[in-house]
């Protein structure tokens, strides 16, 4: 099967999938989304992704939606596309209505999905780790809601690429390290793993939660706490976590070598632990 | 003629105008826009709007675009729709490409326009002024670029409506008064008009610039400077400015009466001055 799209029940090849120009997702970024990865033909963490999607819609006061129906449609679309290793993208917008900032009355949400093969990273990326830059966190104040307000993330990612790096790490103007442009961030320092606590400033990552859970299981000391750029630079290990990212070691930040410049054992163990969860 | 849309050269009724689901405007909010108003069948400040559109695209490093051609297409669409009093909405996105944060290579921008009749505000709104609330400015850090990163503006506007008010005024977490949810803001205090200076935190409004120019012409003392919420509350007059808003007096903020609770003479004079410019 080709890569497929779904628009409000209609399934087509992706290039034929269209939405109205007055979809609020298009004119206001008034839309939420999820990306679900499959491994071996099975969608991973589907409960967690749909729970977060539901929360995102509630936080934005979207009209009531039958999340179970969307979940079933997503599973059906994935089955139809028949890929072992795919990313299912689900975007729900507040609906179609003549342009006006105020919430429209009695307008149904728009449900759009795509299924695409996941292009695996070059093995060298996971074997040697990646380089990153830090950028000022200039995103909006509700990064805990997974919306398409992603232009700052786009600009940060491109800035990293232009600098010959793989990703950008957002740092607040007070120096607090937040997360990557599409991933959460962990550091290992003084034998303790640290990651930013859940606040409106970061995404409540599903892989982040899995990694925290694996740390508990393995009795790794771990703390959800704030840390600043100097602690980031001085860490023994740094890694990003995310649905597509998995656990990805960072070996250089702003040109400074992290730890000994090689991928660290915590990252390796947690990546193995994460992939181990797929078999459960 | 009906209200019309334009998508990359194709003109249709608005409800038939569609864009691909992988338009970056839809999945990342990676798009800029303008709204141009017409009076008496003539587009107002078209040079200024296209100059700002061009700047927005340059700031975001969009692929090179023939702005003059888009301008001609906008004028043609407006002529075809044949309204005296219309809003021409122009949105340009970075293009269509499989979802990936990085800028896509060799992909043309997407140009979408709509022409809709402007629904005039009830006369009472302009005669008696409006009520507003203040909300924390939780927008991203580049509000000077006119992008569709508008979800915070949507949420602020809706919060105002829910509170029985007309609009919301963004105030920074240090207490600096920025602007309305889709307009700039002026205050009159101690005989001086004040408005937020042009920084990345506010939109460089075209009506704002016109109002500043009219102030010069009329020799009104005017200052582009920061002011805080207590100065806002204590003002003799407060008004919003914008393409559709024009000059709109605010008579109550957070339940507190502004000045004597009636629309003020500065706002009245500047609104007259603005409408006077239409005849030039």
| Assembly context of the chains | homodimer
CATH top level assignment of the largest domain in chain A: Alpha Beta
Radius of gyration of chain A: 19 Å
Principal-axis shape of chain A: globular
By CATH, the superfamily of the largest domain in chain A comes out as D-amino Acid Aminotransferase, subunit A, domain 2
Strand content of chain A: 25-35%
> From the helix content, strand content and strand pairing of chain A, which structural class follows?
alpha+beta
Low-confidence stretches of chain A: none
The two chains with the largest interface, and their residue counts, are: A-B, 52 and 52 residues
CATH topology of the largest domain in chain A: D-amino Acid Aminotransferase, Chain A, domain 2
Distance between the termini of chain A: 28 Å
Series of secondary-structure elements of chain A, N-terminal to C-terminal: EEEHEEHHEEHEHEEEEHEHEEEH
């Amino acid at each position: 099967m080709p890569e497929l799209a779904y628009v409000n029940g209609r399934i087509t090849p992706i290039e034929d999938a269209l939405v109205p120009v007055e979809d609020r997702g298009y004119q206001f970024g008034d839309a939420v989304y999820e990306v679900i990865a499959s491994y071996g033909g099975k969608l991973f963490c589907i409960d967690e992704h749909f729970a977060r999607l539901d929360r995102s819609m509630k936080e934005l006061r979207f009209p009531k939606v039958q999340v179970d129906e969307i979940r079933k449609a997503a599973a059906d679309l994935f089955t139809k596309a028949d890929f072992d290793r795919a990313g299912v993208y689900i975007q729900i917008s507040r609906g179609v209505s003549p342009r006006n900032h105020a919430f429209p009355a009695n307008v149904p949400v728009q449900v759009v999905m795509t299924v695409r093969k996941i292009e695996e990273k070059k093995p060298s990326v996971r074997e040697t780790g990646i380089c990153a830059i830090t950028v000022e966190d200039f995103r909006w104040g509700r990064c805990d809601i997974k919306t398409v307000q992603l232009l700052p993330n786009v600009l940060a990612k491109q800035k990293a690429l232009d600098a010959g790096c793989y990703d950008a790490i957002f740092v607040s103007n007070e120096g607090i390290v937040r997360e990557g442009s599409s991933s959460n961030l962990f550091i290992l320092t003084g034998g303790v793993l640290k990651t930013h606590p859940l606040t409106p400033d970061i995404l409540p990552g599903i892989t982040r939660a899995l990694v925290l859970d694996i740390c508990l299981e393995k009795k790794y000391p771990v703390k959800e706490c704030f840390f600043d750029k100097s602690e980031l630079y001085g860490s023994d290990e740094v890694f990003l976590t995310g649905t597509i990212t998995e656990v990805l070691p960072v070996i250089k930040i702003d040109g400074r070598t992290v730890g000994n410049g090689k991928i660290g054992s915590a990252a390796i163990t947690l990546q193995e632990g994460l992939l181990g969860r797929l078999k459960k």
